[in-house]
From TrEMBL:
Signal peptide: none annotated. This is Chromosome partitioning protein. It comes from the Bacteria. InterPro entries: AAA_dom (IPR025669), DNA_Partitioning_ATPase (IPR050678), P-loop_NTPase (IPR027417). Residues 3-178 form the AAA domain.
Length: 254
């Protein structure tokens, strides 16, 4: 059975895209078949997966508008060995263009139907806002992975996301769960990070992944080469952390 995960947090720069790319590659490295869906008009997931967003004729945008089947848009086997549904700036128009379409919240869910059984995991990298694109991700997902940086306003932002998940559950996707909260760019020497991390565990208990992603320059460098960190520096702390996360997630879904 496929497991469909939305990677979401309306805050930008918390590590959603880094998690999408590197979790996808790590799941592949431990033998899983993975599809990564770029839902952000910035197209960072696309570029970081080694696909030039500027040269694309067909993207997730055309899939959401019903102009192309997902199989026409899919990039099979990127350098990280996962498949990709790419995005670029064109996707920024969907909010307006989808407004009058029927079932606009569940268009991604419907679009994924013909390919979902080809995969063990489908990961969706959501944009940094609680907009219609994120809503499509949440409606298509079984559960949500929430990357977060342990800083002062992190918990406050989290309550908006948790409320949105609750609303999606009520209106569209009754079984949507929080898969886990992922501490990213973590620096254990930072006292505030440690405090926020403790609070997180008090609030969310075992929903907080045991695996912590450290701040690691290799993770930040890898997108410049269009590869996941496993193909940039396999022994780096960042690569090892995402491999550990893949194993933790597999353990939880086995
Ligand atoms: P988001 O998708 O939530 O906006 P990104 O994954 O793009 O966040 O990360 C924001 C920036 O931080 C990027 O430049 C990325 O390379 C960098 N980054 C993300 N995670 C790490 C990490 N663990 N260590 C160092 N840099 C990181
Ligand atoms: Mg991003």
């Amino acid at each position: 059975m496929v497991k469909i995960l939305a990677i979401a947090n309306q805050k930008g720069g918390v590590g959603k895209t880094t998690t999408g790319i590197n979790l996808a590659a790590s799941l592949v490295a431990v033998g899983k078949r993975v599809l990564l869906v770029d839902l952000d008009p910035q197209g960072n997931t696309t570029m970081g997966s080694g696909v030039d967003k500027r040269g694309l004729q067909q993207t997730i945008y055309h899939v959401l508008l019903g102009e192309q089947p997902i199989t026409e848009v899919r990039v099979v086997s990127t350098p990280g060995k996962y498949d990709l549904i790419p995005a670029n700036q064109e996707l920024a128009g969907t909010e307006v263009e989808m407004v009058n379409l029927e079932q606009r919240e569940t268009r991604l869910k419907t679009a994924l139907q013909p390919v979902k059984e080809e995969y063990d995991f489908i990961l969706m990298d959501c944009p940094p806002s609680l907009n219609l694109l994120t809503l499509n991700g949440l409606c298509a997902a079984h559960s949500v992975v929430i990357p977060m940086q342990c800083e002062y306003f992190a918990l406050e932002g989290l309550s908006d996301l948790v409320n949105t998940i609750r609303k999606v559950r009520l209106n569209f996707n009754p079984t949507l769960k929080i898969e886990g909260l992922l501490r990213t760019m973590f620096d254990p020497r930072n006292v505030l990070a440690k405090q926020v991390s403790d609070q997180l565990q008090q609030h969310f208990g075992n929903k907080v992944y045991r695996t912590v992603i450290p701040r690691n320059v290799r993770l930040a460098e890898a997108p410049g080469f269009g590869v996941p960190v496993l193909f940039h520096d396999k022994l780096s702390k960042g690569a090892q952390a995402y491999l550990a996360l893949a194993k933790e997630i597999m353990g939880a879904t086995a």
